[in-house]
Specification:
Its cofactor is heme. This protein has 20 helices and twelve strands. The protein is mainly alpha-helical and 566 residues long. The longest helix has 40 residues. It is globular.
Length: 566
């Protein structure tokens, strides 16, 4: 009887697995066992661990946000063990004598129990709160870095949108956690949000009943906020963070302009071992810093505020900083109401509250596409802009920050009035004007500074840098020699792309009949406003002329605005 023919699968995958198995068996121990099951050696040979990341201090801003989020998860697990998310009223019988015997909610009582009766509870509570503030602040500054350097441009528009989602989710998570202790200060904040919800036209009252389970404050809000704070929003944040990091890994990491750097390469350090070692050390620095803040700086002492009572409001109450600008907008908004039929439309709350937040996040979301529309730029960008080389974008960003700051200051108008003995009404009127005037001033000043820096870069490229030595001539005059820039420095100052403003254009067919315009008048006018003021960087001919003659060639502008040499 013939023996069956042996069938051997010699596919590349099987051979690769056999090779990996041989290598792992030679390694032995725990690493060999893990490699047999997880294919770690294959991961290393694939080059993923050797992926290069650039090195710059501003890239640490995103890492601070990530590490703060990790600290939030760790400390949140600890606090979850003892916190009771219930609005049921009990008599406080804990260690804090000043509140002993008072009726409080179980949520407030458990917060006091964590603070005074759980070993290390107060430290962990304060680390958690400081980490939340640092997370939002680091994410906010990280987004500003991305905006000012143009890191949101193609192909990173999706990652920019994910970042906006992270920012909005972090605000929700922070507010939900801030409200969980059910103290008088957080209850005042909840009353503020109740007003925002009720101000929504038509559906406001029904939305309030849905959120609070009836009229404010209801009896189910704390359990719902607890679910949002520990389950829903953290899950969304984890997913968005994972997607954000995956896209950062998928795209080449952006890098600042410099010698040897282009859109086709990345100059930096490999992920393993250099970057992973630095990142691990930086995590412990952030963690240690938060522990020091939690141990040395008191934050949110709920025992001083007492339990929440709907009939009371804390004097001088202020929300956490990231929500202060919304409160400031509502404080200075003039009273505007409309009565249509049986309904009242309270614009004084809806527009500066719900409308302003929608305007902010909506404007941020569409900006990458608006800028691409204004410039007509469809290329991929992996080298960052210096903020001075995008003066209008930089000026708009500073104007937005200034407007945010004005609203934020308006949120503390009562504190400013009492501390500096000023009229509250006068401060309110001043802030109503400042939120419109200050951003305009900031825009003009910032754009002029950027253009001046562009001119300075042009002069340095053509004339070189001052050598710092003042020489007196026999005639009594003083002068300072210039030192020519190195090629690397000259490249860094002139490598950026300069877009020409779009011009109105139209195509015609063979019969000479005009087709639909490709660039309309409005788009062309906005493009000139966005790009038209840029200082032209030196051309190759101008640089060569300056190198040969040691002086700037005479330059005149032609009719089309381009520099002409003479």
């Amino acid at each position: 009887m013939a023996r069956p023919t042996s069938v051997v699968d010699s596919s590349p995958d099987v051979e690769a697995r056999e090779a990996d198995s041989t290598n792992s068996s030679q390694t032995g121990g725990v690493l060999g066992w893990a490699d047999d099951r997880l294919g770690l050696a294959k991961l290393g040979r694939s080059g993923l661990l050797r992926k290069v990341f650039p090195d710059h201090w501003s890239f640490l801003l995103g890492e601070i946000a990530l590490y703060s989020f990790i600290v939030l998860l760790l400390t949140g697990v600890f606090l979850t063990i003892w916190f009771k998310p219930s609005m049921a009223e009990i008599e406080y019988d804990g260690s804090y004598q000043l509140l002993k015997g008072l009726p409080v909610s179980e949520a407030f009582a458990s917060t006091l129990n964590i603070s005074f009766d759980v070993r290390g509870g107060l430290l962990v509570r304060q680390i958690h709160h400081w980490a939340a503030l640092l997370f939002v602040a680091a994410a906010f500054v990280h987004m500003l870095r991305v905006f000012f350097t143009g890191a949101f441009r193609k192909p990173r528009e999706v990652n920019w949108l994910i970042g906006i989602g992270l920012m909005s989710m972090s605000l929700i998570a922070g507010f939900a956690g801030y409200s969980l202790p059910d103290d008088l200060l957080s209850g005042t904040g909840l009353r503020f949000v109740d007003g925002l919800i009720r101000s929504v036209p038509i559906i406001g009252t029904w939305a309030e009943f849905f959120v609070f389970g009836g009229e404010f404050p209801g009896s189910i809000l704390i359990p719902r906020l607890y679910m949002v704070h520990i389950l829903l929003v953290p899950g969304l944040l984890l997913g968005l963070v994972a997607a954000h990091l995956a896209l950062v890994f998928y795209y080449k990491h952006t890098q600042y302009p410099g010698p040897g750097r282009s859109d086709n390469n990345v100059v930096g350090y490999p992920l393993f071992p250099v970057y992973m070692a630095k990142a691990g050390g930086f995590f412990f620095i952030v963690f240690g810093f938060l522990v020091l803040m939690g141990g040395l700086f008191q934050i949110n002492p709920v025992w001083l505020y007492g339990p929440y009572d709907p009939a009371k409001v804390t004097a001088g109450s202020q929300p956490d900083w990231y929500m202060g600008w919304v409160e400031g907008a509502i404080r200075i908004m003039p009273n505007l109401e409309s009565h249509w039929g049986p309904t009242t439309w309270s614009w004084a709350i809806f527009l500066p509250g719900v409308g302003l937040m929608g305007l902010l996040f909506g404007a941020l979301a569409v900006w990458p596409f608006v800028e691409a529309w204004l410039t007509g730029d469809k290329r991929e960008h992996h080298v960052l802009d210096r903020p001075r080389n995008a003066p209008t974008r930089t000026a708009l960003g500073v104007a937005g920050i200034t407007c945010y700051a004005m609203f934020w200051l308006a949120g503390g108008n009562d504190i400013i009035a009492t501390r500096f003995h000023l009229s509250l009404n006068a401060i309110t009127v001043f802030m109503r004007v400042a939120v419109f005037v200050a951003p305009v001033i900031a825009f003009i000043v910032t754009k002029r500074i950027c253009l001046s820096l562009q001119r300075s870069d042009r002069e340095r490229t053509l004339h070189g840098s001052e050598d710092g030595v003042i020489v007196r001539s026999p005639e009594g005059g003083y002068s300072e020699a210039h030192v020519a820039l190195s090629q690397d420095e000259a490249f860094a100052l002139t490598q950026h792309l300069q877009h020409e403003p779009l011009a109105v254009s139209s195509d015609t067919d063979d019969a000479g009949v005009a087709k639909k315009q490709q660039v309309g008048r409005v788009r062309a006018a906005l493009s000139r406003w966005f790009l038209g003021a840029d200082v032209q960087k030196p051309t190759v001919r101008e640089i060569e002329h300056a190198d040969h003659h040691g002086e700037l060639p005479e330059v005149e502008s032609s009719d089309d605005g381009k520099p002409q040499l003479h």
